[in-house]
Amino acid sequence: MPGRLAGDVLHFLATRGRPAGAPVAEDWRPYVTGRVTRHQVPCRHDQMTEPGPLAAVARVLTALTERSGP
Question: Fewest CB within 10 A of the end CB: N or C in the chain?
C-alpha cells in the first residue's frame, strides 16, 4: 500500500460522461495529510489534455501561484 503524501492535493475532475462509481476527490483522503480540493473541468476524462480543458487547469494553477507569491 502506498504511503501518505504530506501535503495538499488538487483533484481535477472531468465532469462529462462519468460512469457510476468513478473515483472522486474524496477517494484520495486516506493518502493525503492535507486538503483535497476538487476542481471540475467540463469535459470527458479522455479530453483532459485537449486545449480547452488544459486551459481550465492552467487558470486554477495560475490563480493559486499568484496568491502564494514568490
Answer: C
